[in-house]
Description:
- The chain has helices at 14-23, 25-45, 68-74, 101-105, 123-129, 137-146, 165-177, 198-255, 262-299, 320-344, and strands at 50-58, 111-113, 120-122, 178-182, 189-195, 303-307.
- It is an alpha+beta fold.
- The strands form two sheets. A four-stranded antiparallel β-sheet has the order 4-5-1-6. The chain has a two-stranded antiparallel sheet with strand order 2-3.
- Helix 2 runs antiparallel to helix 10 (320-344) and helix 8 packs antiparallel against helix 9 (262-299).
Amino acid sequence: MDMTENKDIEVIDLRIIFKRLWDKRKLFYIVLPTVFILSCLYIICIPRSYTTTTKMAPEVENVLGNGTLGDIASTFGLNLNDMQTSDAITPLLYPDLMEDNGFVAELFNIPVKSIDGDIDTTYYQYLKKHQKHAWWKYPIAAIKNLFKKEDKGHSLQFNPYNLSKEQDKLANLIRSKITLSVDKKDGVITIATEAQDPFICKTLADSVRQKLQQFITSYRTNKARTDLEYYKKLTAEAKHIYERARQVYGSYSDANAGVILESYRAKRNDLENDMQLKYNTYTALNNQLQAAKAKVQERTPAFTVIKGADVPVKPSKPKRVIFVLAMTFLAFIGTGLYIYFLHEK
Length: 345
């Protein structure tokens, strides 16, 4: 029994397609130059921006128990190896700092200066007043300003967690200009920044790196610095108490230097013992103070700048040539499909 089924197979004849396109080639002569010119006019109006990067590697662990600081601390009876702690914030979480208004707001007052020297202000004012825009955005912004309502309910004292609409808008703009990334393998932190001026772009990258270093240092030494301030306070109080006891003992001894009565000698011995106890307390606290200072130094991380931020020579975007060629190619494809399906009907 013959089970063969005849199927109609539609064959695409490229010669027919090329013939249709050739017959309507005048449409290409109109569309392609028009799209090319319009693309050029559009992309020229878009301000160019620059991008630079810097890389650094923070010290993950700082084990100094066997080093110089460990030897110094050991003289006070302190073993730094027993004081090692793990960080709650790992380097992989550093990029999330850009989500914190407190960290972003610290970038508001960064001093920036353009490469030609015409702009010399803060980064906040640079984003607010010195940004270039496409020409059609200026009338749109003017219309919006007519209906703009004044921000109310914000105190005169700046609060990064209670921003006005304008401040919040600029904070989000800063987030779009800065990218933090961490390599999971080696922990290298890469900071990429974008700005319309190449020198400001470099300044921003260096400033973000410094702010990040300050944050990491402050975080890792926070507990040690708290302990240091605590021991400073206790040591100062113990020293004051000891000095008062010494003065009382000295005054009593001078006033009763020729007295041989046992009652006077007993009181002098009591005062001397009390002074010695206070001195021992002061000495012990002073030793702990020195150990706390060593702990702060131990917890302070070292940073290695693997790649410094440089002043970019060429703008990173927009890619004008690529954009114009892409739009022209899409216009060619769209016109070809229009001609093909128009003849199908």
